[in-house]
Each structure stands twice: as structure tokens, then as C-alpha cells.
Write a structure and sequence with these properties.
- This protein is mostly helical and 187 residues long.
- Among the domains are: 3-68, no CATH class; 121-181.
- Helix content is 80%, strand content 0%.
- It contains seven helices and no strands.
- The radius of gyration is 50 Å and the shape is elongated.
- It starts with a helix and ends in a 6-residue tail after the last helix.
- The relative contact order is 0.02.
């Protein structure tokens, strides 16, 4: 740039600083605006050395800002392509509509106090579950004991049955021997 243009620019900035800050300028008046801009540019440039990814992002910053603009629309896509895309999404959009209607139908239930209180009642539910687990464990242990007792009872009954059978056999043998030793009336 021309030296004359830079000097005029510096004077305008100095006048604006007087209007904004008054007579006392918070900035160091020894450094001109152009020098400060050159210093800032030099520092930014030196900090970006070796950071190619950031340089590429900064180069594409206007394009990124355009994408972030809510009014942005890519007019490069042909109308036929847009139509095909919408037709592809048609069934999905219909499904979403059905789901939305279903949600609206059950929304009153979902927003009810009973559902809202579920988080508050979760501790009680955890306690009840723990009690049920403990009761289940106790009943399982009791069932084991009952089964062991029944098995012992069955063993005792089996032993008694064997003993009674042996007793019956012995009694039968004794009776037979007694009858065989008995004098016959014919004798």
C-alpha cells in the first residue's frame, strides 16, 4: 500500500480511539496500528508453521462459515436427485409419522406421575428385589434340607423294610423248624 494511505488510515483510527476512549488511550501510542497489525500477522504466521491441518481449515473458513449458515442450501443438487432422495426416505418418514402418532397417544401415560415417580421408587424396588433374592436363597436352602430329610426317611424305611423282611424270614424258619420238631399225633 501507499504510505500516504497508511498514514491517513492511522489518523482515522487515532480519531476513533479518542471518540471511544476519550483523551486517555488504553493502547500504547508509540506503536502504530499498522505495526501492531504486522506484529499480530507475524505472530499468527509463526504459530501456524508446522500445523498444516490448521492452515487448511483457515483457508476453508469462508466455506465452513457458509455451511454453518442456517439459510445455506446447496443449489448444485439437481431437482431430480432431490426428488429421488425424498422418495427413498418416504417409507422411513411414514414410519416416523406412525411412531410419532403412537408416541402422542401414549404421551399422557409417559408423562404421568406413576412414571415420573419410578426414579424415586427405584431404591424401594432394589430393596424388594434384594429381599426376594434372599428369600429365594433361603427357600432353596430349606428345600435342600427337606429333600435330605426325605431321603434319610426313605433310607430308614428301606432299612426297616429289609429288617422286617429278614425278621419275617427268620420267624418263618423258626415256625417251620418248630413244626418239624413237634411230635406228630400219630407217634
Amino acid at each position: 500500500m501507499d504510505e500516504h494511505v497508511l498514514t491517513a488510515l492511522e489518523k482515522r483510527v487515532a480519531e476513533m480511539e479518542k471518540v471511544v476512549f476519550g483523551e486517555i488511550s488504553p493502547l500504547d501510542t508509540k506503536i502504530t496500528v499498522v505495526e501492531a497489525l504486522l506484529n499480530a500477522h507475524t505472530m499468527i504466521k509463526s504459530s501456524l508453521i508446522g500445523h498444516d491441518n490448521i492452515v487448511h481449515v483457515l483457508e476453508r473458513l469462508p466455506e465452513l462459515n457458509e455451511f454453518l449458515d442456517p439459510t445455506y442450501s446447496n443449489n448444485n443438487i439437481e431437482i431430480e436427485t432431490k426428488r429421488k432422495y425424498i422418495l427413498l426416505l418416504h417409507s422411513e418418514l411414514q414410519n416416523l409419522g406412525v411412531l410419532l402418532k403412537e408416541f402422542q397417544r401414549v404421551e399422557k401415560v409417559v408423562d404421568s406421575d406413576a412414571i415420573a415417580n419410578t426414579t424415586k421408587l427405584s431404591e424401594k424396588l432394589d430393596t424388594i428385589i434384594a429381599n426376594n433374592v434372599n428369600t429365594h436363597l433361603e427357600s432353596t436352602a430349606s428345600s435342600k434340607q427337606v429333600l435330605e430329610t426325605i431321603n434319610k426317611y426313605n433310607d430308614i424305611l428301606s432299612s426297616l423294610e429289609v429288617l422286617l423282611m429278614q425278621f419275617d424270614q427268620t420267624a418263618t424258619q423258626i415256625e417251620q423248624e418248630m413244626e418239624s420238631k413237634k411230635p406228630s399225633p400219630d407217634d
